[in-house]
Every structure is written in structure tokens, then in C-alpha cells.
Design a protein that fits this description.
The protein starts with a helix and ends with a helix. The chain has 4 domains: 10-110; 117-162; 174-275, no CATH class; 283-370, Alpha-Beta Plaits (2-Layer Sandwich), CATH 3.30.70. Strands 5, 6, 7, 8, 9 and 10 form a 6-stranded antiparallel beta sheet that branches. A 4-stranded antiparallel beta sheet has the order 12-13-11-14, with helices on one face. A two-stranded antiparallel sheet has the order 1-2. It contains 14 helices and 14 strands. By secondary structure, the chain is α+β, with helices and mostly antiparallel strands.
Length: 373
């Protein structure tokens, strides 16, 4: 019996270390280092494993890759490991493999990922273009989505996206604010029933004397708001909520909100929120500034049709051909100075023609601008 014990101890000590981790490390190495243009050999993989403190023979790596392909296919197809093995034994199912071996280039690479590199590039560009995400947070989020592609593809995406200069918020609380607002609006939090509640926050803005540190509005008074919707417009995140002080629906820039807190008080303004058609709200508003909603008609040069379509879309608006060179847009708009400024940007290529009250107000706006010069 004593001799048997000695043999067992020697066998135990003879085992290679960290072998259970080896397939996982192989998969992570291939996901990070390879794509269709960047391949690695079994020797490259073995060298990486050795650097990680894992002994590996070249032949065992081939076996690990076979097992990885089976396991991934089993989970994707929701089948048994035996069924996955049978599918991969069929040469016609070569495309089902996550990890491929190129006989001509003599290397392994990950081919079929859940996301195409162009998808990840688009996500990265969306993150960089969002004004409400601080630069540091944007870089971190791009780093997260870039983990879905190889490091070579990720480098190109980050390099390309960083070449463009955009105005970004300095408020690092934005993502946390969004989470707090969503929790306040939710009917279930941490799996438990929750009554949507009001929030309070400090609302800040810049002054010429405080360009580096925005100052709180209302002399630092808390804003108490019943949150109803979050929406994105012109690269900014907005909260649409029922304001306690003014008893009406207002919009607030989320990146101008600080110290967002849930109050525990049930939210108000359900009727006002229900009466606000969200799909029309951003269409009618210009830079999310308020104003009285009016039915307007604007005559445009035909060359402006694409720009107008981008702004108003096709829903709940009317486009009418006036003559060979002009068309007329009929739409509901929140008439404000921001709307007039937008219209003025077209110069002689746009003319507000209805209603008469808005036309006269627009003329007065032009006179006020002209007085500056």
C-alpha cells in the first residue's frame, strides 16, 4: 500500500500547472490578438502561455482550439456537446467555427464574432460624438466596446475617432445622473416594486466670470422635478420633467444637472406628460427651448429639401410643391427665438409665410438683431 501512495504522489507532482485555465487563456489571446488580417501560430500561442506560467505542447493547443469551437457552438446553437461535435466534423460546416486555421498562411484567427468591426466602429463614433459624455468617460467606454474586436482593429478605431475635435461636457456625473433618473422613473428597482418618484438637483450654467466652473441657477435652490422621459437631441441628453415650481413640463440638459437625488415623493404631472407627444416633441423644439406650439408654413428653395427632411422627417408634417423652384412645409413648431435663428440661417432660401402673427414677430426679431449692427 505504501508503494502505491508514493506512485500517486509522484503522479500528482508531475502534473503541469494551471492546465484547467489553458483553454480560457488561449481563447482570450486569440480574441485579442487575431482577426482575418492578423494570424498567430501554435508556437505563438505556446509562447504566450509560457509567459503566463502555463506549460503547453503545440499538439495540446490544437486540441484546446477544437474544444473551444465545440463549446462556443454548443452555446450558440443551444445543443449538446455531442451534437456540436457532429456538426463540426462535417467539412461543409467549417464556417460554424469561431477559431479558424488558414492552411495557406499557416495561422489561427478568430473570424465569426458577434459584432462586425464596422458595428463597433459606429458605436465608438457615437460615444465620441455624444456631447453629454465627458472625454475621459468616452475613452473608457470606447475601450469597453473595443474589447469585442482585436487589438489591431481597436487601435484603428480609437485613432480615427480621436482625430475629430468635438465640444464635450466637463460634467463627469452625467452617466450617474442618467442612472439615478432611470431609477426614479422605474416601476421596479433591484427586482422590487417601486413607485416612480420626484428627483431634486442643482442646475448649473456658465457665466463669463465662471467659464471653468459653472454656477448654480436660482441662487443654488434645489430644482424639484417629476421625471417622465429622457431623450437625445442634437448630441445632448435631456430630461423632460414636470417642474414643481412652474407646474408644467420643462426640459433640462442632463450634463447641466448636479447632485441628482431621489426624494421618495411620488411624481406629479401625469396628465401633462401624457399630453406631450414624445415623438413630436424633439421635432417641434429647437435646441429644446420652449415656446408656444403653432402651425406654421415656410416656403423653401427646392435645394433645401434634404436639410428640411433631416430636421422634420415625414411624420405629422406636410410638404407641398409650390412651383418648379419652391416647396412649402406645414408643421407644428414651438415658436421661439431659437426657431427664428434656425430659420434665419437659410437666408433668402426660406420664408416664413404663416401665421401672420409669427411673421410679424419674426420681423421684430430681425429688427432687434439689426439694431446690434
Amino acid at each position: 500500500m505504501g508503494e502505491v501512495k508514493n506512485i500517486q504522489v509522484e503522479a500528482k507532482h508531475g502534473r503541469k500547472q494551471n492546465q484547467k485555465m489553458k483553454p480560457y487563456v488561449v481563447l482570450q489571446f486569440l480574441m485579442k490578438e487575431t482577426d482575418e488580417n492578423h494570424l498567430v501560430t501554435a508556437y505563438d500561442i505556446a509562447g504566450y502561455l509560457e509567459a503566463c506560467g502555463i506549460d503547453a505542447e503545440r499538439r495540446s493547443i490544437y486540441k484546446d482550439i477544437e474544444e473551444i469551437n465545440k463549446a462556443v457552438l454548443m452555446m450558440e446553437e443551444e445543443c449538446t456537446i455531442q451534437e456540436a461535435e457532429e456538426m463540426l466534423d462535417d467539412e461543409e460546416n467549417e464556417e460554424l467555427k469561431l477559431i479558424h486555421y488558414d492552411k495557406h498562411r499557416k495561422g489561427f484567427y478568430v473570424k465569426d464574432r458577434h459584432f462586425d468591426p464596422s458595428d463597433i466602429r459606429l458605436l465608438a463614433e457615437c460615444v465620441y460624438s455624444a456631447k453629454f459624455i465627458a472625454q475621459g468617460q468616452a475613452e473608457r467606454l470606447v475601450g469597453v466596446v473595443s474589447e469585442f474586436v482585436s487589438k489591431h482593429q481597436a487601435y484603428t478605431m480609437k485613432h480615427d475617432a480621436l482625430l475629430t475635435d468635438r465640444v464635450k461636457t466637463n460634467n463627469k456625473q452625467v452617466l450617474r445622473n442618467i442612472g439615478s433618473i432611470n431609477d426614479a422613473m422605474s416601476r421596479k428597482v433591484m427586482g422590487e416594486p417601486h413607485t416612480p418618484e420626484k428627483i431634486k438637483f442643482k442646475y448649473v450654467d456658465y457665466t463669463i466670470d465662471s467659464l471653468d466652473k459653472p454656477q448654480a441657477r436660482r441662487k443654488g435652490e434645489w430644482y424639484v422635478v417629476s421625471p417622465w422621459r429622457l431623450l437625445i437631441n442634437d448630441g445632448n441628453y435631456y430630461l423632460m420633467g414636470f417642474d414643481d415650481k412652474y407646474q408644467k413640463i420643462l426640459t433640462f440638459r442632463v450634463d447641466r444637472m448636479e447632485d441628482v437625488r431621489m426624494t421618495g415623493l411620488p411624481r406629479d404631472g401625469e396628465e401633462a406628460a401624457a399630453a406631450t407627444a414624445i415623438n413630436k416633441y424633439a421635432q417641434q423644439s429647437f435646441s429644446m427651448f420652449g415656446g408656444e406650439t403653432q402651425r406654421v408654413k415656410i416656403r423653401f428653395d427646392n435645394k433645401m429639401l434634404g436639410t428640411v427632411l433631416d430636421r422634420f422627417g415625414r411624420s405629422a408634417v406636410v410638404y407641398t410643391k409650390e412651383d418648379e423652384k419652391h416647396f412649402v412645409l406645414t408643421a407644428d413648431v414651438k415658436v421661439s427665438e431659437q426657431f427664428y435663428g434656425w430659420l434665419l440661417g437659410f437666408g433668402k432660401k426660406a420664408q416664413l409665410i404663416y401665421p401672420a402673427t409669427a411673421v410679424e414677430d419674426f420681423k421684430a426679431y430681425l429688427d432687434r438683431v439689426r439694431e446690434l449692427y
